[in-house]
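Quick one, probably user error.
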């Protein structure tokens, strides 16, 4: 059951396609302050889930989080915001101490500005949620259990984005492959070594002077035929699109945006000037439907050259500096000249440069035209990236309605999950960021982002061969599987390190698993279910399972427990039911072990992947292929753990390109007897 409660006069976010009517009842569970800006809830023993892309664990208790989309390359535990705002929480206090009211409910706050969630930070036993102003809709979702609450919420926010099937392959990225030749070299690196690959991502340097919807003709002299050349090799090129449009006379996108008044305005009504990669830019006003249409249609420049997928970036929006702030910065710096800098002034001075980027003051100094309503940016800050993705998604629907286009974004807000996926932003080559990815997968699935994954190997900092290998072993279960690294860091393509067989074997296992991954993804998307689930949701009566944050249930049949620490040859695994362990060295070389419910220490060498199959379940395996379109879905073998009865699996498959997702036409019920497995 979903009830909608209204406070004040909220700004329309379009995050809910069809809203239930507002109820006149008082908001349950929470104590609301008189002015409506703060809600309090005694936490008891509740676990608190949700918030999608955020720092820390699956259970969010013990920290303060703020929905404030931020360009945040330092994903340390002490941050409060990342690139996204997903204002959904699920409180599960059913095992609360005796005498307390047992509660379990979901809540979504439809509010486009900064919301702060103090979840047992100020007071261990209390959650405090605060808003800058009391204009929001709160949706309370009651249900039978955690998974039921999630699927009701997901039905409310609308079906999650479905990418083309090839986007379930593996992709290689780097900031940047500078030329056609360099891209060819990457394709060779994979294909000559027999390592499967479906995508090579183009980062900002494919453009001319970082201008959206241009190609650098010196380094990519015949882009359209290069796209075809790669396609013949079964590789899709996926270019980046940035939010800021370079200010340059004669540049088409700039001229069009100025002429049609499609850029955000400053206080004086002039086009707001910020700076990002290209230097000075204007921001398209994605909150305006005309601007959205115009910008979305601009992707045609690349679609017409054979491109079938994009990633949207810097759309929090990231701001290096604004003209106004930069001027103030230089004045201030000047004032230090000749002074004896002391503890105060020295740190003040060094902080000034750091404070230029993503400055809150800049977010308060430009405006949107929300189809006739002028709104200051900070009030709707979290909608910006969402509407950039929406601009693209709506345009694809208009321009290529029959075809799925790959789209994912850095910044997001609930609603954009209908138009694209997200990647988890600029992580670092740290083992702890593998753990962060695993936790985020669970929380992002709750909030509708199924097509997601982190930069494998880590984006910032130098990686290590074992980190890449272990991270691939986690990444083979994420729908978006991409290796990406930053300029100036060690190259980390899968063929860069010794022991090439190990990388090849893990990636070939990914391709063997694609029938399972795709089938489970499609069932989750079409049924508003979760593809990656925390154990707590699947085993609600198991107190041990509730605390497991380094394992996940992937789809409905398997549990994964990746090794996420350096120099380890195994790990402890908690199994919430009897399972059969498949220890893969390659797609066709594995051993098995039957393990009872409970705790186990399980060996897992650096080149092995563990898959735990639930009793009475089975999983299809394809013959490994070099690209998704070469997988033979008619030649599947099955691995499983029969329980004496027939084992059944519902296999979803479709053409992977068009948009008929009706499960009825695409699900085959496969039945195996024990002896067949
Ligand atoms: C941002 C993106 C990163 C990209 C870089 C250059 O930091 O998050 O993925 O490589 O910009 O475009």
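Nope, works fine. Designed sequence:
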């Amino acid at each position: 059951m979903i009830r909608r409660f209204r406070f004040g006069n909220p700004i329309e976010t379009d995050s809910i396609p069809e809203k239930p009517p507002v109820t006149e009842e008082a908001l349950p569970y929470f104590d609301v302050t008189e002015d409506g800006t703060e809600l309090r809830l005694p936490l008891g023993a509740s676990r608190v889930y949700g918030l999608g892309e955020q720092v820390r664990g699956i259970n969010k208790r013990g920290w303060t989080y703020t929905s404030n989309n931020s360009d945040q390359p330092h994903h340390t535990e002490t941050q409060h915001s990342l690139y996204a705002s997903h204002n959904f929480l699920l409180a599960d206090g059913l095992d609360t101490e005796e005498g307390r009211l047992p509660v379990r409910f979901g809540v979504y706050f439809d509010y486009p500005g900064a919301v702060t969630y103090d979840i047992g930070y100020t007071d261990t036993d209390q959650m405090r949620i605060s808003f800058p102003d009391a204009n929001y809709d709160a949706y309370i979702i009651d249900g039978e259990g955690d998974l039921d609450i999630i699927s009701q919420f997901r039905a409310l926010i609308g079906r999650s984005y479905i990418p083309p099937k090839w986007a379930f392959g593996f992709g290689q990225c780097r900031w940047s492959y500078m030329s056609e030749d360099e891209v060819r070299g990457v394709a060779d690196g994979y294909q000559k070594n027999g390592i499967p690959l479906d995508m090579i991502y183009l980062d900002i340097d494919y453009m001319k002077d970082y201008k959206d919807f241009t190609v650098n003709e010196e380094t990519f002299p015949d882009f359209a035929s290069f796209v075809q050349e790669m396609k013949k090799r079964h590789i899709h090129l996926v270019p980046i699109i940035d939010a800021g449009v370079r200010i340059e006379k004669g540049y088409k996108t700039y001229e069009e945006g100025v002429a049609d008044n499609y850029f955000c305005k400053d206080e004086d009504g002039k086009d707001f000037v910020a700076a990002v990669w290209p230097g000075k830019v204007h921001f398209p006003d994605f909150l305006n439907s005309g601007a959205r249409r115009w910008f979305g249609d601009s992707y045609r420049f690349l679609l017409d050259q054979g491109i079938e997928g994009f990633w949207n970036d810097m759309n929090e929006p990231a701001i290096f500096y604004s003209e106004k702030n930069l001027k103030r910065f230089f004045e201030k710096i000047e004032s230090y000249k000749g002074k004896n800098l002391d503890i105060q002034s020295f740190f003040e001075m060094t902080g000034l440069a750091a404070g230029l980027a993503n400055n809150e003051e800049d977010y308060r100094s430009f405006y949107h035209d929300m189809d006739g309503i002028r709104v200051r940016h900070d009030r709707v800050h979290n909608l910006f990236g969402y509407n950039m993705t929406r601009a693209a998604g709506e345009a694809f629907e208009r321009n290529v309605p029959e075809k799925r286009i790959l789209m994912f974004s850095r910044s997001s807000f609930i609603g954009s999950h209908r138009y694209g996926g997200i990647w988890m932003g600029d992580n670092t080559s740290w083992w702890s960021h593998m753990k962060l990815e695993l936790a985020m997968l669970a929380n992002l699935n709750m909030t509708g982002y199924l097509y997601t994954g982190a930069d494998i190997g880590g984006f910032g900092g130098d990686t290590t061969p074992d980190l890449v290998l272990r991270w691939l072993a986690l990444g083979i279960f994420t729908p978006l599987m991409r290796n990406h690294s930053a300029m100036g860091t060690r190259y980390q393509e899968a063929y860069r390190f010794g022991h090439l067989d190990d990388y090849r074997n893990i990636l070939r296992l990914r391709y063997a698993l694609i029938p399972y991954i795709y089938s489970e993804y499609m069932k989750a998307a079409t049924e508003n279910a979760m593809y990656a689930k925390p154990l707590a949701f699947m085993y609600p009566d198991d107190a041990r399972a509730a605390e497991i944050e380094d394992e996940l249930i992937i789809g409905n049949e398997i549990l994964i427990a990746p090794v996420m620490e350096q120099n380890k040859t195994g790990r402890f695994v908690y199994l919430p039911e009897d399972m059969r362990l498949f220890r893969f060295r390659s797609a066709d070389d594995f051993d098995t072990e039957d393990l009872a419910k409970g705790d186990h220490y399980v060996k897992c060498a650096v080149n092995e992947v563990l898959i735990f199959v639930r009793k009475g379940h089975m999983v299809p395996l394809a013959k490994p292929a070099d690209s998704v379109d070469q997988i033979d879905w008619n030649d599947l073998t099955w691995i499983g753990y029969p329980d004496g009865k027939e084992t059944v699996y519902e296999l979803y498959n479709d053409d992977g390109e068009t948009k008929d997702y009706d499960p009825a036409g695409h699900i085959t019920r496969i039945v195996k007897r024990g002896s067949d497995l």
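The mean pLDDT is 96.
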